[in-house]
Every structure is written in C-alpha cells, then in structure tokens.
Specification:
Strand order of the largest sheet: 3-2-4-1-5-6-7-8
Largest sheet: 8 strands, mixed
Number of helices: 12
Strand content: 5-15%
Number of strands: 8
Structural class: alpha/beta
Order of helices and strands: HHHHHEHEHEHEHEHEHEEH
Shape: elongated
Length: 312
C-alpha cells in the first residue's frame, strides 16, 4: 500500500464526516446558512477545535459576500488554505542519528496507553531500515508486560535492546542503554519510558531524574524528547502536551491510533496551540504504518475531493 493510500485509509472516519457535509453542499444551487452549519458541525466533530473551525467559517462567509456564486469546490479550497496556513511549520524533519555526536538519545514519553512501546519498536525498525545504527532502551519498568512487549517486538524486527527487570530503576536502565549505544558505536538510543499521568507530580519527577542521569553521560542528552499522543483522545491531548512540554521540554510529537478515530482534526488543534512539530503519525498496526507526517498528504486525506455538480 502506498503512502497516500495509508493516509487516506487512516483518516477515513474523519474524512467521511466532512465529506458528508460537502456532499450536502454540492447538491444545492447556492450556499446558505444551513450548509454552513453542516460544515461547522463536521469540523467540530472531527476535533479541529474552536479557533480553526471559526476561522474556516469566517473565511467562507467573507468569500461568499464577495462571490454569491461560491460553490462546494470553492469552499473546499478555502478550508484547505486555512488549514495549510495553520499547519505551517508542523512537519517535523527527522534528522535522527545523523549528528556527528553519537549516540544521540530520543526519549518517548506520554500517558498510559498512548502507544509508546509499539512506537519505539516501529520507529527503530524504520530508522534501521534506512541505515541508522541504533539500540532500544526498555525503560518502562513499571508496567508488568512492557519490557516483554518491547523484547518481543525487538526479536521480531531484529533490533538491539537493553532491558532491566520489572521494578528496576528506569533511570539506571536508561544509563545502561546509553552506555551500550556508546560502546557499540551506535548512532541513536531510543528510550521507551513508563506511561504516566501528566497530573501526577511524582511520576513527572521520575522523568526529570532520567534526564539528570543521562546528562551525566552527555550534557545534551536527551537530544530529542517526543510526546506520543493517542489520536483518539482528540483535543484533550492539548493539556497533556502542554504539561509535558512545561516539565520536560518537548521537541516533537507522535500521534498514534489515528486509523481508529474520527478525530483527525486534533492534529491541527494541538499544533495550533503548542507549535510543537509532528514527526510521525500512526495509521495502523504494522511497522510501516508509522508514517512521517506530511501536510499535503494529511490535507488530501482529511478533506474531500469535491467535484462540482450542476444545480438542478
């Protein structure tokens, strides 16, 4: 399956809601308030957020005041233009493992169930396939099956891993993973951290401890701190991202599980609020379903391809 097909399939649920509103518009001879309400509801239902939805609607109304013949195709282009402007700078350009400073360290953090462990393995697989030499650090020592899960993925994908026992000091495992990466001449160390609620101070302090321990080996480590967000949480992910950013200093986002939700617009709402680049999105279960985020692919997938229909 090609990249565009993966995006299209992944954002099908959200796109179908917006498509329904545009289908209603296409069958009308003129744009009316009822049509605008349908479009507004569709963008809200897809979790684009209040500010972006209102900006799209106001841009449509302004264009309609200037051109009473505005139809579905023109409305679609207006929505695309607003979203493209809002997402300017959202594409994370991944340069992982290409620094002269080796190994670089990437920490994946987030709440329970966001998909950090599978993302760690899938990302490792993709980067290794592209020529990056790396090792994984199984630093989620609190969830009983987390280490075993990452080991299973690593065996399946032929990835190196450093792990500790259940209940071990996660910062010590991170230290060992860095040491192994350095001694073996790897480009990158990817660290899977334990899931933690962003409102729990004690758990957030453990992340800070890991950062301090890594800094003893390399004062710049971790070089990258990416928050993994479950896309089905929609715009509720904004508060998660805000707190993690304040506490840990995020450098990027990975949005997972988008293939099972109609809330694909949350990407826009989260980036608009925090301006943290989106590096990857999860569009399925297989390793190659983790895809680099592309604004063009996203817009082509989430917005309908509107064909003009002649009014009756």
């Amino acid at each position: 399956m090609g990249i565009f097909s993966k995006f299209k399939k992944g954002f099908h649920k959200g796109a179908s809601i917006i498509q329904g509103a545009f289908d209603t518009l296409s069958g009308k001879s003129r744009l009316d308030e009822s049509s605008l309400l349908d479009i507004e509801e569709a963008f809200y239902a897809s979790d684009f957020g209040v500010e972006t939805t209102e900006e799209i609607l106001e841009s449509i109304r302004e264009a309609h005041r200037e051109n009473k013949e505005l139809r579905a195709e023109g409305v679609g282009e207006i929505a695309r233009s607003v979203l493209r402007k809002t997402l300017e700078g959202a594409e994370g350009v991944s340069m992982l493992g290409q620094s002269t400073e080796k190994p670089e360290v990437l920490c994946l953090i987030g709440v329970n169930g966001s998909g950090k462990t599978t993302t760690c393995a899938k990302l490792g697989y993709q980067l290794k396939s592209s020529g990056c030499s790396l090792i994984l650090g199984a630093c989620d020592t609190f969830r009983a099956a987390a280490t075993e899960q990452l080991k299973e993925w690593s065996n399946r994908l032929d990835l190196e891993i450093v792990a500790g026992h259940h209940g071990a000091d996660s910062a010590a495992v991170a230290f060992d993973a860095y040491s192994a990466g350095e001694s073996r001449g790897h480009d990158l160390v990817i660290i899977d951290t334990a899931g933690r609620l962003h409102v729990k101070e004690g758990l957030m302090d453990e992340l800070a401890k890991m950062k301090r321990v890594l800094a003893k080996r390399n004062e710049r480590a971790p070089h990258h701190s990416w928050l993994v967000i479950d896309g089905s949480t929609g715009i509720n992910g904004i508060e998660q991202a805000r707190v993690f950013h304040e506490k840990f200093g995020l450098t990027g986002l990975v949005v997972t599980k988008l293939d099972g939700t109609a809330k694909g617009g949350a990407l826009v709402a989260i980036f608009r609020e925090l301006k943290i680049p989106i590096f990857y999105i999860g569009l399925g279960e297989s390793p190659d379903d983790l895809q680099p985020f592309s604004i063009n692919q996203y817009l082509d997938s989430i917005l309908p391809s509107v064909e003009m229909t002649a009014p009756a």
